[in-house]
Amino acid sequence: MGGLPEAMQDMASLLTEATQAKADAALLNEIRGSLGNSQYYVAWLMRMEGAQAEEWMLPAESARQNFRLLAESTKGVKVEEDYEKNLESVIRLERMSLEELQGQPLPKKCSGCKNVSQKCRSQCGSKGKNDPQDKKDARGAGFNDIPKGGS
Hints:
Layout: H1 4-20, H2 25-48, H3 53-73, H4 83-95, H5 98-102, H6 116-126
C-alpha cells in the first residue's frame, strides 16, 4: 500500500535484468504488462494530485509504449490480459481533461496510494546522486563533545 512508485522502479529493473538474461518471452510479457499497469496507475494518480504535464506524461507515455508493444507482439495469441484495451485506456488518460478525470472513479488498485507525485519526484531527483564515492563514513558520528558557549 502506497509503494506504487517504488514498485514501478523495481519492475523496470526486473524487466532490464530479464531482458539481459534472455528470459522466456511469456515472462517478459508478464513483467512488461505489470510495469505498464503500474505506470498507468502512477500517471493517473499524479494527474489527480495536480502534477505538471511534464511529470505525469513520462509514466503515461512509458505505459502506452509497453502496452503497444504487448498488443502488437501478442496479436492473435490468446492472453489473459487485453493489452489493446489497456493501450486505449492510457491514450484516453492522456487526452482526457482534468475535469473529466476527476469525474471518473479511482481505480481499485489505487485506493491506498498517496503522495505519488512527491515520491516520483524524489526518485527522479535521486537518480545519478547515488555515487558511492560521495558517501561519507559515519563511524563515530554523535560521539563528539558538545560545543560550549553560544546560545
